[in-house]
Each structure stands twice: as structure tokens, then as C-alpha cells.
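Budget justification aside, the reviewers requested a transparent look at the raw inputs and outputs of the sequence design task funded under Objective 1. We therefore reproduce one unedited record. The lines immediately below are the C-alpha cells for a 89-residue chain.
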């Protein structure tokens, strides 16, 4: 699975989401274990706990979480939180 496909699944499954997905480590060609890292910003996360936000992402990824994705590192933010976190960059 490519990073663009993971982004598309997240963005289509969570309202107004913007997802940036990367590969945090070089894939092992002998053992294709798809490790992804994602930063997701969406107003749909407003008022949700971190666990609920991550569950929304897992739900958006659906069956891919058990078939194509070995590990997923998540950072989820509302637009306001993301602006605060990235305001000093």
C-alpha cells in the first residue's frame, strides 16, 4: 500500500480531514511490513478524546488495518491544535 492510498482512505473517511502520511523507516524488502506515520488534521476531532480520534482513523482505514498496514503512528489534531503546535515553525 502506498502513502497516497492511506491518505486517500483517511481523507475520504473523516470529514474535512487533511492527512500527511510518510514511511518512518525504510521498508524491509524481504519482509514487507508496512509501517506508516500519519499527521491528520480535522475539525471532526473537536471534543473527542485522543482514543476516539485514533479510532476514527482506524475506522477510516477499515480492513486495510488488518491486511495492508502493519503499524500506524498517529498524530491527530483539530485545526486550532495544529496551528498552535506548528505556530513556531
Amino acid at each position: 500500500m502506498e502513502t497516497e492510498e492511506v491518505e486517500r482512505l483517511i481523507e475520504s473517511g473523516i470529514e474535512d480531514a487533511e492527512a500527511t502520511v510518510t514511511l518512518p523507516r525504510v521498508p524491509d524488502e524481504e519482509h514487507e511490513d508496512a509501517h506508516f506515520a500519519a499527521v491528520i488534521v480535522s475539525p471532526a476531532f473537536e471534543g473527542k478524546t485522543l482514543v476516539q480520534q485514533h479510532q476514527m482513523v482506524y475506522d477510516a482505514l477499515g480492513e486495510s488495518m488488518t491486511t495492508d498496514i502493519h503499524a500506524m503512528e498517529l498524530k491527530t489534531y483539530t485545526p486550532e491544535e495544529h496551528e498552535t503546535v506548528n505556530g513556531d515553525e
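The chain has one domain: 3-25+34-81. The mean pLDDT is 90. Computational costs for records of this kind are itemized in the attached budget.
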